[in-house]
Amino acid sequence: MRALVISGGGSKGAFAGGVAQYLTEELGYCYDLFVGTSTGSLLITHLALNKTQKIKEVYTSVNQRSIFNNCPFTVKKEKHGQMEIGINHFNVFKNLMRGRKTFGDSKNLRKLISNAITIEEFEKLKKSAKEVVVTVSNLSLNKVEYKSINDFNYEDFCDWIWISCNYTPFMSLVKKEGCEYADGGFGSMVPIEEAIKRGATTVDVIVLETEVTHFNRMPSKNVFSLITNMHSYMADRIEKQNIRIGKFAANHNDAIINLYYTPTVLTTNSLIFDKKKMHLWWEQGFNFAKRKNIELNEIKE
């Protein structure tokens, strides 16, 4: 069984889309299992349907308004060309006055998911032999959960995709089935082990970080940049742990893992959705996967 695993990474998911496009369309890989976390969860349904062009058009055209119905931050360009987030005090205050538990709300993303995935597409995929699994963090029970398309109806599965992407406290905290849920990346950034547990013998893994740390973060400018830096630090630790555990599981189950890291630092803030950059990252992902496989073939020869 061959599986495709896509890590979390916000706007950097565009790079993963390009890599996946090359693997499926150029190399002709047929996957039985798709497992995604956060931004990876947004991609895998259409990849399983072989509708790469559709998800590319959707994915590379989103902006802050596509995600947030109440965006808690502003985006501004710093002196050195880096994009930084500032606090939108009015929107944060408005959210807190409404009794919300987060700084912002991401209900527009839930609408986008429903518009992107039709009921007909959902039913077609559910009847197929392919399995699509998204990762969510159950904050109430303090555990990671994996939600398979085979176990839910259309509305519920769209909810789980949305929940998997909700990067709290900037995005919505969702209460479902009596529990509070948030971004799957808080518990399992790169769910390789889950793919192997479900029977995968070959796993192609797209990791939306560089293999080696290439930069030191700029000093925090405000409480939001501090929180994003902290989240990024914790995500990096979780990611490395997930990969170590995944490699261990692969060794004990005679499974093969193929890792695709980003070759360069794409962005220091994956909450910023820039259409031009995301379109470029998609093309970079495609070309990177092409180069990597050419190099591997040359080594084998």
Describe the structure.
With 301 residues, this protein is α/β, with parallel strands linked by helices. It is 46% helix and 18% strand. It contains 11 helices and 10 strands. The protein has helices spanning 13-26, 39-48, 52-59, 64-67, 89-97, 107-116, 119-127, 154-164, 192-197, 223-252, 275-300, and strands at 2-6, 33-37, 73-77, 83-87, 131-138, 143-148, 174-176, 179-183, 202-207, 256-261. Strands 1, 2, 5, 6, 7, 8, 9 and 10 form an 8-stranded mixed beta sheet that branches. The chain is globular.
Topology of this structure?
Elements: E1 2-6, H1 13-26, E2 33-37, H2 39-48, H3 52-59, H4 64-67, E3 73-77, E4 83-87, H5 89-97, H6 107-116, H7 119-127, E5 131-138, E6 143-148, H8 154-164, E7 174-176, E8 179-183, H9 192-197, E9 202-207, H10 223-252, E10 256-261, H11 275-300
Parallel strand pairs: 1-2, 1-9, 2-5, 9-10
Antiparallel strand pairs: 3-4, 5-6, 5-8, 7-8
Helix pairs in contact: 1-2, 1-3, 1-11, 6-8
Q: How helical, in percent, are the residues?
A: 40-55%
Taken from the alpha-carbon principal axes, the silhouette is globular
Rounded to an integer in angstroms, the radius of gyration calculated over CA atoms is: 18 Å
Structural class: alpha/beta
Indicate the proportion of strand residues.
Answer: 15-25%
Give the N-to-C terminal Cα separation: 26 Å
Largest sheet: 8 strands, mixed
Q: How many E strands?
A: 10
Mean pLDDT score, rounded? Answer: 91
Listing every helix as H and every strand as E from the N terminus to the C terminus, the arrangement reads EHEHHHEEHHHEEHEEHEHEH
**Low-pLDDT sequence parts:** none
Number of helices: 11
